[in-house]
Specification:
The chain is built from 14 helices and 18 strands. By secondary structure, the chain is α/β, with parallel strands linked by helices. Strands 3-2-1-4-7-9-8-10-11 form a nine-stranded mixed β-sheet, sandwiched between helices. It is globular, with a radius of gyration of 25 Å. The N terminus is likely disordered.
């Protein structure tokens, strides 16, 4: 571990031109920079110019600029890390964007801990350290590796400010050159963004998925974080594939290898409840039939894991269309894996008829959901010219191949 930088270590000057990022980080970690960040904790970005002008009267311009940039990143990071951690940690723009949110990282760390015998993990492509932090808090020693010097230094700083430096060793290196044999498990989070945005080809990841899989198979236990849209055919037979959602939003997929996992299994895990649905291999195609009294919208992780058929079987229902992940049934069904709605009306796709129906029902608040429709929800709401005290949900979809509108209300939970 590097020692905490001295108060004036590597402080950039206004005359020096573009500041070295490592020197900027060191300046922000020095007492003067830390105090400035504390002062900016609750600053209003809309008043940034006025704030910067005021602070430059008593602080160097380069330090004010760096602190304001870091303050913005910390505010963005609260959604992933929570305020208690985010306002102590340090971030890069890519680090905030690509970091695992804490509930997901905690779930994965706890699963590593439950595998038994996992006391150390090599975290390859560690980024700013979000997963390393969760692993350390689960009682696991971590080697955190990233090849970018600034990112590695930020990960080291985060381990220190959170008091986890005794459990997290940060190393700036190429992950392909790391010997992972001393570690009980390996975790790999390849970079899935390039200069042009998201990368969808797993072999274009950095490092490629094939290399990450090979590294995983050499370890007693391993996990690879991949994009949730990964094609199922890219999942090898040695892996257990898990799709994870948090608060209804699909966040990632993970391939698990080694002792204690179930190769060939596809799993959907829903956070924060921790509910998990799985199947050992592809499920048979579910039946298709007419819309019943109830409509069920499976969680995104269930859809990504191709487990909609399991929901159909559980509720004794059917799909409204063979290509659409909406499940319908004649009886109420309560499940953590799907959100239920009671359907009151079924209309062929027709804006005028929908507008008349909503006016008759005095609907002023309309939730629009769609699958298999090109209509944009905001466009539809604007055309409806909603007025009234009531609320409704409309589904724009296909039923037996025909464009259809289903109107209803969320089911009341028992």
């Amino acid at each position: 571990m590097n020692a905490h930088p001295p108060p004036d270590a590597a402080r950039p000057t206004a005359e020096a031109g573009p500041a070295d990022p490592l020197a900027v980080l060191a300046a922000l970690r020095a007492p003067r920079g830390t105090a400035l960040l504390d002062e900016l904790r609750d600053h209003d970005p809309a008043r940034e110019l006025a704030t910067a002008t005021r602070l430059r009267r008593s602080h160097p311009a380069h330090l004010v600029s760096a602190a304001l940039g870091q303050a913005r990143l910390r505010q963005r990071a609260v959604a992933k890390f929570g305020a208690a951690d985010a306002y102590r940690m340090f971030f890069t723009p890519d680090g905030v964007e690509q970091a695992t949110r804490t509930p997901v990282a905690t779930h994965r760390a706890e699963r590593f801990a439950r595998l038994g015998g996992v006391r150390s993990v090599a975290d390859l492509c560690c980024g700013i350290g979000g997963d390393a932090i969760a692993l350390a808090r689960a009682g696991i020693s971590v080697l955190a590796v990233d090849r970018d010097p600034l990112t590695a230094q930020v990960a080291r700083a985060n381990a220190e400010v959170l008091g986890l430096q005794d459990r997290i060793e940060v190393r700036c290196a190429d992950v392909t050159e790391i010997d992972t044999t001393p570690y009980d498990a390996v975790f790999v989070d390849p970079a899935r963004r390039g200069g042009r945005g998201r990368i969808f080809d797993p072999e274009a990841y950095s490092p490629p998925l094939s290399w990450a899989t090979e590294a995983a198979l050499k370890a007693p236990r391993a996990a690879l974080k991949i994009a949730p849209g990964v094609p199922h055919e890219a999942v090898g037979p040695q892996a257990e594939a898990e799709w994870i959602s948090d608060g209804g939003d699909v966040k990632e997929a993970v391939l698990w290898f080694g002792e204690g996992v179930e190769p060939g299994t596809f799993r959907a895990t829903l956070l924060p409840s921790g509910a998990t649905l799985s199947a050992a291999g592809p499920l048979p195609a579910p039946p298709v039939g007419p819309v019943g009294r109830y409509l069920y919208e499976p969680d995104g992780a269930v859809i990504r894991a191709h487990l909609v058929a399991a929901v159909v079987e559980e509720c004794g229902g059917r799909l409204v269309d063979e290509t659409i992940a909406y499940v319908t049934a004649d009886e109420p069904y309560v499940s953590p894996y799907a959100t239920g709605y009671e359907i009151t009306d079924q209309l062929p796709f027709n804006m005028k008829k929908l507008k008349a129906l909503l006016r008759e029902r005095r609907v002023g608040v309309l939730t629009v959901k769609k699958r298999g429709s090109a209509v944009e929800p905001e466009e539809l709401r604007r055309k409806m010219k909603l007025q009234g005290p009531n609320a409704a949900t409309v589904f724009l979809t296909r039923v037996a191949g025909a464009p259809t509108m289903l109107v209803g209300q969320p089911m009341k939970r028992p």
